[in-house]
Design a protein that fits this description.
Blueprint (H helix, E strand, L loop, with lengths): L1 H15 L3 H14 L4 H13 L3 H14 L4 H47 L1 H8 L7 H5 L1
Length: 140
């Protein structure tokens, strides 16, 4: 177990200088030897957090806490993960809300254009500033 911990730590330190993505793969290889290794799971969670894989990172930190409930660093990282996940959901919510609003606006415009094509007088009247109101409507 100590060898696995040492190996996981070395892999994390060596690869973290260049990129976190390869370190996730290497940490997975180290965890194949001992899937319940505290440091290996924690380091993989950190690496996944660094590449914005918040759900996977959260799963690793939860597993660390399940196996080692007194791990304060994993608790802190779990809180960070949950915050990042909430922030990501809010960004996605805004993005999709804007996307659907633009689609609805576009549909409304297309429907209005279709109505104008069906009734060319309506389009000409609107372009000339003439309303559909008659003299009777204006007097009332």
């Amino acid at each position: 177990i100590r060898e696995t911990s040492r190996l996981a730590l070395e892999i994390f330190r060596e690869t973290s200088r260049f990129a976190r993505e390869p370190s996730v793969e290497l940490l997975e290889q180290a965890l194949e030897l001992d899937g319940s290794n505290e440091k290996g799971l924690f380091r993989r969670g950190e690496a996944q957090l660094a590449v914005n894989d918040f759900e996977l990172a959260r799963a690793d930190f939860q597993k660390v806490l399940q196996l080692y409930p007194s791990n304060k660093a994993a608790k802190a990282q779990l809180v960070i993960c949950q915050q990042k996940i909430r922030e990501q959901h809010e960004r996605e919510k805004k993005m999709y809300a804007n996307m659907f609003q633009r689609l609805a606006d576009k549909e409304t415009k297309l429907e209005a254009d279709a109505v104008c094509k069906e009734d060319p007088n309506m389009k000409d009247d609107k372009q000339n500033g003439v309303d559909d109101k008659t003299d009777v409507d204006v007097e009332a």
